[in-house]
Design a protein that fits this description.
- Helix content is 35%, strand content 21%.
- It is α+β, with helices and mostly antiparallel strands and 657 residues long.
- The strands form six sheets. Strands 12, 13, 14, 15, 16, 17 and 18 form a seven-stranded antiparallel β-sheet that branches. It has a five-stranded mixed β-sheet with strand order 2-11-10-3-9.
- The chain is globular and about 90 Å long.
Length: 657
């Protein structure tokens, strides 16, 4: 008994630490599989000994709240659900009753209250007894009705979620997201509990109703499904559900299992509840679980394999993530050969080393994870140099989690924005190389400089097997790269990302140097300042870029990969021939400044970014503003035109005062 008690104390400490990290601090110190395994071991020991120790997570519904949001007790406790992984257990639980089977969504549970048709309160689940008031945040969820056609008191529960598609877009667009959030659930939790709801509004949070608590004066004829239908009629999105009996339960579980791989909303299982409301409520509750519902967790398909090696994948934050690469196995209908290990702490807890026999599974049937290490040879060979740039690495411990970081400020992985610009629409225009994809390829060592993009076929097998890729995506990407290799010099000059050289300046440089890249790249400061729109600052930046031997060699290698389309230089013609315009401020008569710029160029003129002595006109609707460009134009005696003035100039009717 003493050994069992000691083991229970160990399990409580480990599970409590993991729960606190996950729910309060949005970080992971162990996998879901490991947590469930230890939790089940603790449950078994408690049942065997008849003893439940203080602080046991089997007796807790949630975790303490750490937030500055207002707190409010729930009228009745919000309980967890008992769970099973066996379809037969679901059928046994349902018995002769009819039930509703629905997704168990993986987000943050929210309680909404409406009075007189208006949303008056939104509260998080919190620790099950006390929640946080997030009413202002709920009002900016993407699909929460602010007013409904029901005047009585309505209280309902649902899950705040962020869809995978939105999560991936935000990871691409927001630099700091990758460092803070590893999955949609963590991002959703952080978004819902913001003190500033402007941030919440940008995070694409959705609300999926799954439980009606109170609807004053409405008779649902004792039917849960009618409650769902009624909520839908009021404008709520409700969780997808199917009516089931003991005979059809297995078939419906299979329906959801087949759908989950492509389901856009995070889910970690299913929920079965009784269709008969009164019957379900008559069953009462245990100390922790209601008896009218049960959760079904996916029974993990587990395969044994051999760990080949640990791949270290740097990110834009400097964090170098360990990825386990193992002999391929079939899981949930797909071939899997890689799984993220997240950090060194998790590696050490698994005692993970090359050649170990491991078991792997797909968390929620989607994300490959390591379940167990059967041989535990121990962590070794943590790299002391970054696999991308070769710079020194260091192990840092933050909140008890050890991770590896690259210390080189010039690491390519930290310069993801320069690669993003290079493949953007106005530069090389390579469809399929999003910022997130570039980060994966750079982290895997496929791309270290621009020229490497044109040799991705060398990594075909690894790319095809990457999460989110496949043969079709790979083929489309390679075709897009081949197309991009035939390009214009203007696109290349802009795509290099030289400080201050935008698209307009790239055009000016190419025209001035008659599309001779050698002459352009070796030009001195004096020659460059003769170009319309290029002042001393931009000229110095250009010379500094090409004066760096590494940059020059990198550009030389890039140019060997490209076929530059010849440009037939035409003599300037049109009513704006010989004129140079600078456009600043907002425009009203044109769609955007680019449309105005295109019109100027079509009429033989040039559009640059800086006011110089060579500028003919400055276009600014705020003619009398004290902006630096207006000030410079006045100093040089350059006319400032509004859009109306420009249109008169275009029509030959403008006369300077």
């Amino acid at each position: 008994m003493e050994q069992k008690t000691k083991r229970m104390k160990e399990l409580i400490a480990r599970l409590s630490e993991a729960g606190k990290a996950y729910y309060q601090e949005s970080r992971e110190i162990m996998s879901n599989y490991e947590y469930d395994r230890l939790y089940d071991e603790l449950c078994a020991l408690e049942q065997e000994t008849g003893m439940i120790l203080s602080g046991s997570p089997t007796q807790k519904v949630g975790y303490e709240i750490l937030s500055e949001l207002p707190k409010e007790p729930h009228p009745s406790p919000m309980l967890s659900l008992d769970k099973t992984k066996e379809t037969e257990a679901l059928k046994e639980w349902l018995g002769g009753q009819e039930g509703l089977l629905s997704w168990k969504l993986d987000g943050l549970t929210i309680v909404l209250t409406y009075e007189n048709g208006v949303l008056t309160k939104a509260v998080t689940r919190g620790n099950g007894e006390i929640g946080e008031v997030i009413t202002n945040n709920a009002k900016v969820f993407e699909n929460v009705p602010l007013r409904i056609a029901f005047e009585g008191v309505l209280v309902l529960r649902g899950e705040a979620v962020i869809k995978y598609s939105d999560f991936e877009k935000m990871n691409e667009e927001i630099d700091e997201i990758d460092a803070k959030y590893k999955n949609p659930r963590n991002l959703c939790a952080g978004s819902v509990r913001q003190l500033n709801n402007e941030i919440t509004a940008r995070r694409h949070v959705n609300f999926m109703a799954f439980w009606l608590v109170q609807a004053e004066g409405v008779d649902f004829r004792n039917s849960r499904s009618r409650q769902f239908q009624w909520l839908q009629s009021l404008g709520f999105d409700v969780v997808e559900h199917k009516k089931v009996t003991r005979e059809t339960a297995a078939e419906s579980v299979a329906y959801f299992a087949e759908k989950i791989e492509h389901y856009d909303i995070p889910s970690d299982g299913l929920v079965l509840t009784f269709e008969d409301i009164a019957y379900g409520e008559s069953l009462g509750r245990t100390a922790k679980f209601p008896r009218n519902s049960i959760a079904f967790k996916w029974a993990d398909e587990i395969r044994e394999t051999t760990l080949s090696y640990i791949e270290w994948s740097p990110s834009r934050t400097g964090l170098i993530n360990p990825v386990a690469v193992f002999e391929p196995v079939e899981l949930e209908g797909t071939t899997v050969s890689r799984a993220s290990v997240h950090n060194i702490s998790i590696m050490e807890s698994l005692e993970l080393g090359e050649g170990d026999r491991i078991t792997v599974y797909k968390a929620n049937m989607i994300i490959p994870q390591i379940a167990e290490n059967l041989t535990k040879s121990g962590v070794k060979d943590i790299p002391n140099v970054c696999p991308v740039c070769g710079g020194p690495t260091e192990i840092r411990q933050v909140n008890d989690v050890k991770s590896l970081y690259c210390t080189n400020a010039d690491c390519q992985a930290k310069k993801i924005k320069s690669f993003t610009l290079f493949v953007s629409r106005d530069a090389l225009n390579i469809d399929g190389l999003s910022e997130a994809t570039l980060e994966k390829f750079i982290g895997a060592g496929f791309i270290k400089e621009f020229a490497d993009i044109f040799h991705l076929e060398q990594h075909r097998e690894a790319i095809v097997n990457m999460e989110g890729f496949g043969q079709k995506s790979y083929d489309n990407l390679i075709q897009a790269i081949e197309n991009a290799a035939h390009t214009t010099l203007v696109r290349v000059v802009y795509g290099l990302g030289v400080a201050g050289i935008g698209l307009a300046n790239a055009k000016m440089l190419c025209r001035h140097f008659h599309y001779d890249f050698q002459a352009m790249s070796h030009a001195d400061s004096g020659s460059l300042t003769e170009v319309d729109g290029i002042g001393q600052v931009l000229a110095d930046a250009w010379c500094a870029y090409f004066g760096d031997e590494k940059n020059q060699a990198m550009v030389d290698r890039l140019m060997t990969e490209l076929t530059i389309e010849p440009v037939e230089e035409e003599e300037e013609s049109g009513e704006f021939a010989g004129m140079t315009f600078v456009i600043t401020g907002s425009v009203e008569r044109f769609k955007n400044r680019k449309e105005l710029q295109n019109l100027i160029e079509m009429r033989g003129g040039k559009a640059t970014g800086s006011v110089t002595s060579k500028t003919t006109y400055l276009i600014n609707n705020n003619v009398n503003s004290a902006s630096s460009k207006n000030k410079k134009a006045r100093e040089l005696g350059i006319p400032i035109l509004s859009e109306e003035d420009f249109i008169k100039l275009l029509e030959g009717e403008y006369h300077a005062d």
